[in-house]
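Fig. S4 source data, part A: sequence.
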Amino acid sequence: MNGLRGRRDLRGHRAVIICLVIACAAVVSPVAVVSPAAAVPTAQADTPNVTPSWSALPVPAATRPVTVSDLAARGPGDVWATGYEHTTDWVRPMLYRWDGAAWSRDSSFPGAEASGWLGKVQFVGKETWILHNRDGAGEILRRSAGGSGGSGGWSTLPLPQTLWTYQDFAAVPGAAWVVGEDETGLKVLHHDGSGWTTQSTPDGVLYVMGITARSATDAWAWADTTNGSTVLRWDGTAWRDAKVPLPPNSNIHTMLLEPAGRVTIGGSQYVDGAPRTYLMTWNGHTWRTTYPPLGDTYTEAMVRGPDGALWLPVRSDRAFQSKYARIDGSRTTFSYGPERTNAIDVKPRALTRAGSSLLSFGTVEIYGSKPNLMSERLGG
């Protein structure tokens, strides 16, 4: 089985990638405000009488254990979550949809019963695009808005070749990219709306870890090179080094391309052998680096919330509750999800803005059983 997106050791473990876990960060405008009760000040985070405003959303069960790949929203009533479930001998793709009132499972797409997984979700015009590994071969699932009928409105766009690893995927009107690796090394596959080509990268690039795009002529990728991590940018003609002044001895987990040209990078810097989380923000003129009190939190699920702050799930100090961080400038606050009876591990894996709400999707392990699906909502 191919693909893995969220690894912590970005270079040393490339050879043992066995699955794709991708996450798409929603690019949104901070226009609505979440209730102030959502953000618990750091000093109050462990106060017993603080009641967080996250609520649990029921999710139809999958075959345990499950792995969550991505969560993305077009709007408050059109949210998709992807991943895969483990059967006795193989893994099977898993697709869920939130319609604004409830989660339901969608099994109408081609290859729903075949071995494989679903990865990142992208919205291209009125269509929903999802990276799909189907029996080892890569393809892009496409669903037209309001799709109906026996195929649920789904069609497929096959990739031009089979890769060992399908690392990440990005799509915008007029362009799509799939990055990964085959027996010859790094591959950047590009679709221009009519056909596929293979794109080259600057000398020294060993592996592309992730990719995101604003338009067909403005895409960004983060890569592993002979000199460490770097950021690449596609200008419609070629991939070039974006000259981002990353912290020394660091890697990149995710990149948010935001309105008005803002860019936010999340990653880890290794200091004295231990990782610490950093954030970098481009305001259109300069890069600014900060180190919020997040320890070694993996930032792949980070999103810009409806209140304008950055939100991401963090490792919880309570086995029966999830935990989220809210970063607003220099202030970092925390909130907890609802208490779950007999839970021993609650892990939100992906986060997205859905209108005036934040939605999370992940796994919960109840004592005596394997992890199954969970979802939580803040606001709305």
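Fig. S4 source data, part B ends here. Residues 1-52 have pLDDT under 50 and may be disordered.
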